[in-house]
Amino acid sequence: MPAPAAEALPGQHILLSFLATQSQISLTRLYSKPSACLALFRLLNALERQIIMNYLWLEGPVSSNTMDVWVTRDGRAPYEAAMRTLASLQVLPSPKPGSNMLQLSPSFKKNFRLALTGGGDHMSFGVPCEKDLAGGVNVEMLDRYAANCWESILHFMVSSGTDGRASRPTKGILYLLDRSGLMAGQGAPKITSEGFQFLLTSPHAQLWTLLLQYLSITNERNIDMVEVIQFLFMLSTMQLGQEYSTEVFTNTYHSVLEDLIDYGLVYKRNPNRIYPTRLATTLTSGSSATTSSSAVSSQAQTGASLSGNSTVATAGGGFIILETNYRLYAYTENPLQIAIINLFVSLRGRFSNLVTGSITRESVRKALDNGITADQIISYLVTHAHPQMHKNNPLIPITVQDQIRLWEQEKNRVQIAEGYLWKEFTASTDYNLVLEHARSTSSVVWENEQARMFFVTPEGHASCRDFVNQRMREGGGFA
Amino acid sequence: MDTSTTKAAREDPPAHLTLIVDLNPLQWELSSQASNDTPLSLSQFLAQLMIFINAHLAARDDNTLAVIGALPGYSVMLYSTDDSPPDDEAPARHQANSFQPFRMVDGRIASRIQEEMEKSTDLDGKTDRGLVGAITKALCHINRVNLLSVALTNNPESTSAMAPPSSQSPRMLILSISPDASTSYIPLMNSIFAAQKLKVKIDVCKIFGSDTVFLQQAAYLTGGSYLVLERRDALLQYLSMCFLPPASLRKVLATPSQDKVDFRAACFCHKKVVDIGCVCSVCLSIFCYPITRTSCSTCGTRFPLQTLKRLGYIRQPAAQANGRSKPNGTANGK
């Protein structure tokens, strides 16, 4: 996982841990837009949302004891974790010392209420334009556009610019990839091991990883970070397939807009008008699972027919069949997906809509050397398993899962440590004496009683040498 | 630490909520009269209900909702998430100040309620509420939603191990304002059993009027909450604290439970709510007083005259007693 995600608590959205590090003033400014309050509310987990709802309609502060009595005995730990999260986001600031009165941050309370009731004159949900039917812009077209933009970035990463078909992304994206440590090297950037791991995460997580990087460089570019977050949140509350006017946008919004068009979050056909794509409107709709894939499935539910070639559809639905004999069949012709599979599979044949290959020790070793873990490979296989595979229980054949894990352990079997080997002791008493001393400084890495050998760290070595020399001087009977 | 509760707080399936709104115009008129401590008119109520609905929809964008109105004599589906969205006609600048899904749902529900209320003015004669019909409609709708979600995720452990077996955890919230209608006892009990089988929790919020025995039982038997509004000016606070959390959250944040439940039943013969009555030992039908018939009106079993006599229901001894049918006992309600 790239750096920002590593700090996130399990199950918490990575943006929240980023926001928790921001100053109270920035957060209060962020909450001045109703759409931002609503989007933030959606990123929280169910318990945190409920706590906010409990406090939302109370006018004055309430003693924390009053609310504590609602918590069941088993729910104590999750409740306290939720309260800590809300305090760190300054949504429900912790009470001042010596008091236990709690209330929502006034700015959050006012604007979240506005978001739920509607009204006011903040225009933070986007100003829709009249429908322009002549343009031929529909949801399907927007999905294709977004998938193309996003996949071309990923494809560039995976091929490290060597594949002629992968178009080179704009300078802004290259800079971002470099800054986030996903690619390294000037001029001809190469993908790093973090970059490989990035490729196997869900599109939602990928998007946020890059957007967080984008937020972290806003200071260098003299862009107001709070406004950028507000703009992202505003996009996330817009409706797919609706055109919005950019006339009310601030200067910051306009400059950010240009970058977001590159990422495929926004489609712009007419000047002063934009369409948000599915990448943008699903930014805050839940955790990793809710991406373009589930959005497509919910569309299928309502009976909308989807063309089979749509890249988003293939990206969302599972396409990998894995057999117990390590053979893998991937029903795809998407160059990005083939490139990603190629990271850990040795490909054998390619047909018009099918790629075959097998998972071998070499192919997995290659992936492990790139910094990809066995768990990431398995989770990728699980999330992209073909519907046919879902008949199996467990989904991925146990033999293959275990073998991939074993291959990983095999790699970890050899541990490299710098140090010195002590050997050729003539008497076992000498051996034991020195070993005893080395143990007391806890510097022994490895020992073997039969061969009278042990291995110590460099610091331990110096200490042992002094010990032996001292014994020799004292005439302590070393051979 | 109990891992199941930690998990309950983290994992978060989309929730389905079916609202049953009691729209009896007569009761709303009574409720809005100034002689009450805190008068609450239908329009004030609806304003707060819309915010509650928005809060439910705000939590996740795949949360679903159905609203059913119970009117005198009939019930009607007012809104369902699978309805096709109507055209949004608000002016653009106005639209920018509210979240589009909220505006569309609220607008649709408000206009449908107005339509129905105008229609129902000439239905004064009908005393029977459409509540049972509304509950039945809700159960059918929930069943369909369940089937649909099962068909979509036809594999129990689909994409991730975290995915719950059923993506929906359906609930029903009845906003009741009318008194009990004892005629609807049998169909109501049948709906409760159906809800138990579907694992649907029925929450009841009694906004106006006295306790309703049957809805109390409905909440108790399905594991939902029953709440009588003590302060009607705080309706929204009650709604969002007690009825917004989905089932998984109720393990962490407690919701009010009933300390005593009125288990009285209505008799099958006169639809009277009875404390002590007679129960047919064969089919368990309840009668307040078996004087009119010497046999059970439901299953036809003949009651032994000896028992009827002993219980004091028959004064003169009958000439021919039939010993074939089983003795009849008294029971304390159901």
General description of the model:
Helices cover 49% and strands 10% of the residues of chain A. Chain A has helices at residues 3-6, 14-20, 24-30, 34-43, 46-56, 64-68, 76-88, 106-117, 139-159, 171-179, 193-200, 203-216, 225-236, 251-263, 278-281, 292-301, 311-316, 335-341, 361-369, 374-383, 398-413, 428-440, 458-473, and strands at residues 62-63, 101-102, 127-128, 183-184, 190-191, 244-245, 266-267, 273-276, 320-322, 327-330, 346-350, 355-358, 420-422, 444-448, 453-456. Chain A is globular. With 479 residues, chain A is an alpha+beta fold. Residues 1-10, 154-167 and 317-334 of chain B have low confidence and may be disordered. In chain B, the strands form 3 sheets. Chain B has a 6-stranded mixed beta sheet, sandwiched between helices. In chain B, strands 10-9-11 form a 3-stranded antiparallel beta sheet, with no helix packed on it. In chain B, strands 7-8 form a two-stranded antiparallel sheet. The longest helix of chain B has 22 residues, at 131-152. Chain B has 10 helices and 11 strands. The radius of gyration of chain B is 24 Å and the shape is elongated. The chains are: A alpha+beta (479), B alpha/beta (334). At the A-B interface, helix 4, helix 5, helix 7, helix 8 and strand 3 of A face helix 1, helix 3, helix 4, helix 5 and helix 9 of B. Chain A: Component of the general transcription and DNA repair factor IIH (TFIIH) core complex which is involved in general and transcription-coupled nucleotide excision repair (NER) of damaged DNA. Chain A: Belongs to the TFB2 family. Chain A: This is RNA polymerase II transcription factor B subunit 2.
How are the SSEs placed, and which strands pair?
The complex is a heterodimer of chains A (479) and B (334).
Chain A: H1 3-6, H2 14-20, H3 24-30, H4 34-43, H5 46-56, E1 62-63, H6 64-68, H7 76-88, E2 101-102, H8 106-117, E3 127-128, H9 139-159, H10 171-179, E4 183-184, E5 190-191, H11 193-200, H12 203-216, H13 225-236, E6 244-245, H14 251-263, E7 266-267, E8 273-276, H15 278-281, H16 292-301, H17 311-316, E9 320-322, E10 327-330, H18 335-341, E11 346-350, E12 355-358, H19 361-369, H20 374-383, H21 398-413, E13 420-422, H22 428-440, E14 444-448, E15 453-456, H23 458-473
Antiparallel strand pairs in A: 1-2, 3-6, 4-5, 6-8, 7-8, 9-10, 10-12, 11-12, 13-15, 14-15
Helix pairs in contact in A: 3-13, 4-8, 4-13, 9-18, 19-21, 20-21
Chain B: H1 3-10, E1 16-22, H2 25-31, H3 42-59, E2 64-71, E3 74-80, H4 92-95, H5 100-119, H6 131-152, E4 171-176, H7 185-198, E5 201-206, H8 213-222, E6 226-228, H9 235-243, E7 265-266, E8 273-274, E9 277-279, E10 286-287, H10 305-310, E11 329-331
Parallel strand pairs in B: 1-2, 1-4, 4-5, 5-6
Antiparallel strand pairs in B: 2-3, 7-8, 9-10, 9-11
Helix pairs in contact in B: 3-5, 3-9, 6-7, 7-8
